[in-house]
Amino acid sequence: MLNNTQIRYCLDEMGKLFPEAHCELNHSNPFELVVAVVLSAQCTDALVNKVTKNLFQKYKKPEDFIAVPLSELENDIRSIGLYRNKAKNIQKLSQIILEKYNGMVPNDRDLLTELPGVGRKTANVVVSVAYGVPAIAVDTHVERVSKRLGICRWKDSVLEVEKTLMRRIPEDEWSITHHRMIFFGRYHCKAQSPKCEVCPLLLLCREGKKRMKAAGKK
């Protein structure tokens, strides 16, 4: 496991690699962000952005999503995995946001997780990106990077990863660290072909050193 000095080094190096890391889901308001993140489950941001380009022209507010038959919304997001379930959740959460929150997306994580299709990760993304509330959303990239580097344990659950990162990273850096770890995992420390040979964190990375040794490289 990395100590605090080593974690600081990792954060700084990721910051140098990806100083402009940000949420890559296109949106223009908190409601669009909620819809986009719900759509992104088990799906790439690139595909979601391709779909929402037209979707957000047709549906501009919660009322629009519940004004059409479910089958029509399903057809509009058909190219996205789990589209039937996602369409159902989007209509349900739109109804709740209208009836319970006067059409405004709540800025509280616990309230957000009560919405259909919105889990802890989704809620953390929304409060962080839309409202500037410090949060770390643990997606597959954040989890992989945290465990490969040894910031967290291999056996840690997603919630344990989140809690460990929150404990070991300054609160005012939670949100930017979340984005930088995603970029690091998406474009550098990839699942199948991580760029270990050119990684500035190789000397600290237990997984990287193991991979290099297996490949016969020092």
From TrEMBL:
UniProt-annotated binding residues for [4Fe-4S] cluster: C189, C196, C199, C205
Catalysed reactions, as listed in the record: 2'-deoxyribonucleotide-(2'-deoxyribose 5'-phosphate)-2'-deoxyribonucleotide-DNA = a 3'-end 2'-deoxyribonucleotide-(2,3-dehydro-2,3-deoxyribose 5'-phosphate)-DNA + a 5'-end 5'-phospho-2'-deoxyribonucleoside-DNA + H(+)
Record text on cofactor binding: Binds 1 [4Fe-4S] cluster.
Keyword hit for Cell membrane: no
GO molecular function: 4 iron, 4 sulfur cluster binding; class I DNA-(apurinic or apyrimidinic site) endonuclease activity; DNA binding; DNA N-glycosylase activity; metal ion binding
HhH-GPD domain sequence ranges: 39-187
UniProt keyword terms in alphabetical order: 4Fe-4S, DNA damage, DNA repair, DNA-binding, Endonuclease, Glycosidase, Hydrolase, Iron, Iron-sulfur, Lyase, Metal-binding, Nuclease
Family matches, as InterPro entries: DNA_glycosylase (IPR011257), Endonuclease-III-like_CS2 (IPR004036), Endonuclease3_FeS-loop_motif (IPR003651), Endouclease-III_FeS-bd_BS (IPR004035), HhH-GPD_domain (IPR003265), HhH_base_excis_C (IPR023170), HhH_motif (IPR000445), Nth (IPR005759)
CDD domains to which the protein is assigned, alphabetical: ENDO3c
Keyword flag Nuclease: yes
Coiled coil stretches, renumbered: none
Domain of life, source organism: Bacteria
Broadest EC class assigned to this enzyme: lyase
Family label: Belongs to the Nth/MutY family.
Purpose of the protein: DNA repair enzyme that has both DNA N-glycosylase activity and AP-lyase activity. The DNA N-glycosylase activity releases various damaged pyrimidines from DNA by cleaving the N-glycosidic bond, leaving an AP (apurinic/apyrimidinic) site. The AP-lyase activity cleaves the phosphodiester bond 3' to the AP site by a beta-elimination, leaving a 3'-terminal unsaturated sugar and a product with a terminal 5'-phosphate.
Name listed for the protein in its UniProt record: Endonuclease III
Organism expressing this protein natively: Pradoshia eiseniae
